[in-house]
């Protein structure tokens, strides 16, 4: 189905009937009914004071796989039900290696040591007195999109792209703290360690720390326990596991520390049997969230195609959408403000004619990098990998309006 | 206490001891202890899949007054505990006139009628097919800041400025829907009506609808019940009650409809006994949230002063902070991106010398309007009003570090 060359929405378009939305003319429907909820007092204010979603909504994170033990698990964000760019804290994806510790913030300590002039121990009370910043950024697990070897027509976007969320993170810039302790000239890497039972630990080159935050708040409130309460490292644009949760220790060194999570795990196996190590950056990627797997179109007519695009290298500069399996592409509208290393919502009006359609998106970032096709991705990296899949993704609309995943 | 002319944070400032943060040198503290939560597996992923804050946090909306009946109540946002600019949905302030209705979205209808070419009834399924937008905006009740006649040294910023929140709102631009129904040339006002038991109803001139959204989502997910689920009108920059929740009806007319909520309520009584009517816009305003009433400074030294600024007329262009009761002012840093009709976080490093300090802020917006002093505000409007108080506000730091409200 070729994309329509004319505006799909506009004056008279709905009521003229051409686009088939079922909204009725008032005369045909009769007067507006007065529903029961308009005839009786509603409930009072929420108690105990922290609100929850409507019981008519089915908003929940979804466990990904059956974990080997309860503490090594992940859950994903239901993007098929979400709008805009912010992920509510209750729906932010999770990935734990040793469970979620219950940390008393009054007892928590952060130590900074190693190749520094003045090693330091800080309480949370100390830390919140430093100058702070707030920034909107996405966070994506490098294991998001499990499409290297497998596919499943029943997958929803929560299954394929749910290890991705976006929030406003507030905390102290790591650079501010490093200034305080005085990094020695020979230091070039740091180790970050979590206070969880896994002592989750990663090495990072100092050159990769642009914009790093010692974060104590997300979307205005204190970090959630599953996001590292009371303190996490947040590294914009880099694979999620580097943003060490429950941060207790930073050590400066002159080389990588070669921890378990960067030797046996979180490397990318190439076709020749070698492994890419320290693949930090999440490259440009996008996905259509409406319509997407599990959705059902009710009738032919006007719809809005909508999705998310992001890049670990900066701003998204363009997203193109195809409804004919890649034969032709049209530019989507990007929701302003388009922020660096943040989810960007894109949208395109679409008229569904009732026939089959294959809907895809591809993103380009400010470096000029464009999200690759699956074919190009596999040609470069083979199919041995677990992490860093960012190929173009598709949703098949069948003649009856059902929507299913296709590889 | 005059503001410090020199940078308050910088290389060596903490460990040199001059600013007195209690973070300890590593040698003095001994090795980092291994806490109990590092020695045992944490809990598994959250169940049933919608997460909640840490039990160590006391995050809750606060009922404002004892209501005449349960459905006519309000709760306020705890800005003294928040960071950044986003308000989590669970903490967004509430104001209800007839309680919170439990609306089945499948049964909800929106009718548009009156001076239109094609009156229309829409379901929620219809509405989400229209082109949509997402925008970050504050919402403030015109009754926020109850300072015209009263003051109370025990007030926190939740008491004084808690009928203020900020979220990313997603929905259909009202202009898009009005294009569909065809507004007749003689129409100049509209009526918006809620489906709650109060049938909350307000008139709005079409000239005041710039950026108006038929919103079905906040911060990514479906509207919360107390914010109008499944549909509200959202009017950026205008007093909160105009953003009709549980929106069921829009009627176009050629004059204001003179509803109860714009005749007996939501007007401003002036010194001469007349009342200002249709005072829609929330003028520029700001408040320091850290430190603020109820906080306790532990010791002299370096702190960050932080707060929120906003204007219903556009972007905030500057915020100045005084720590000497208005004798001198210094410009604060505004967190980017500074968005139109959105909360803007401002910050300023501060060194507390241990003596008394009176901390205030004043905001200026892109129209050049500057938040007035209380004296200037009362000179213009007297003290008969209930709504639209936007005077400069202060917090008194006592010699012992306790922080209290002052008028």
TrEMBL record, chains A, B:
**Entries under Pfam families matching the protein:** Mo-co_dimer, Oxidored_molyb
Please list the residue ranges annotated as the Moybdenum cofactor oxidoreductase dimerisation domain. Answer: 278-388
Signal peptide boundaries: 1-27
Oxidoreductase molybdopterin-binding domain ranges (all copies): 97-259
Q: What cofactor(s) does the depicted protein rely on? A: Mo-molybdopterin
**MF terms per GO, please?**
heme binding; molybdenum ion binding; molybdopterin cofactor binding; sulfite oxidase activity
Q: Per the record's keyword annotation, is Cell inner membrane included, yes or no?
A: no
Please indicate if the UniProt record lists Cytoplasm as a keyword: no
Q: Which domain of life is it from?
A: Bacteria
Any one GO BP annotation for this protein: sulfur compound metabolic process
The alphabetized UniProt keywords are:
Metal-binding, Molybdenum, Oxidoreductase, Signal
Which NCBIfam families does the record associate with it?
sulfite_DH_soxC (TIGR04555)
**Stated name of the protein:** Sulfite dehydrogenase
Q: What organism is listed for this UniProt entry?
A: Methylobacterium frigidaeris
């Amino acid at each position: 189905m070729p994309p329509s060359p004319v505006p799909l929405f506009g004056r008279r378009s709905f009521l003229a009937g051409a686009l088939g939305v079922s909204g009725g003319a008032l005369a045909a429907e009769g007067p507006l009914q007065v529903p029961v909820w308009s005839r009786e007092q509603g409930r009072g204010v929420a108690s105990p004071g922290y609100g929850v979603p409507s019981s008519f909504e089915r908003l929940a994170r979804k466990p990904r796989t059956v974990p080997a033990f309860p503490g090594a698990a992940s859950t994903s964000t239901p993007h098929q039900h979400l709008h805009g760019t912010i992920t509510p804290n209750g729906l932010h994806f999770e990935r734990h290696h040793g469970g979620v510790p219950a940390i008393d913030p009054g007892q928590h300590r952060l130590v900074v040591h190693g190749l520094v002039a003045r090693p330091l121990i800080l309480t949370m009370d100390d830390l919140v007195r430093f100058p702070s910043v707030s920034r909107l950024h996405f966070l994506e697990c490098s294991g998001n999109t499990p499409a290297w070897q497998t596919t499943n027509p029943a997958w929803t976007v929560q299954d394929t792209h749910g290890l991705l969320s976006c929030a406003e993170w507030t905390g102290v810039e790591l650079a501010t703290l490093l200034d305080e302790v005085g990094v020695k000239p020979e230091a070039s890497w740091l180790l970050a360690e979590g206070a969880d039972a896994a002592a989750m630990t990663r090495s990072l080159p100092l050159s990769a720390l642009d914009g790093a935050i010692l974060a104590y708040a997300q979307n205005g409130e204190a970090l959630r326990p599953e996001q590292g309460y009371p303190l996490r490292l947040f590294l914009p644009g880099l694979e999620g596991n580097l943003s060490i949760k429950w941060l207790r220790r930073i050590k400066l060194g002159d080389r990588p520390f070669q921890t378990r999570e960067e030797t046996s795990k979180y490397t990318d196996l190439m076709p020749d049997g070698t492994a890419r190590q320290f693949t930090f950056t999440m490259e440009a990627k996008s996905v259509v969230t409406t319509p997407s797997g599990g959705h059902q179109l009710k009738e032919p007519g006007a719809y809005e195609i909508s999705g998310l695009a992001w890049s670990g290298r900066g701003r998204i500069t363009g997203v193109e959408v195809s409804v004919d399996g890649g034969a032709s592409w049209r530019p989507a509208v990007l929701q302003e403000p388009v922020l660096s290393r943040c989810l960007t919502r894109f949208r395109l009006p679409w008229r569904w004619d009732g026939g089959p359609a294959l809907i895809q998106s591809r993103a380009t970032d400010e470096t000029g990098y464009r999200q690759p096709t699956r074919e190009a991705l596999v040609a470069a990296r083979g199919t041995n990998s677990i992490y860093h899949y960012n190929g173009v993704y598709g949703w098949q609309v069948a003649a009856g309006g059902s929507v299913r995943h296709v590889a």
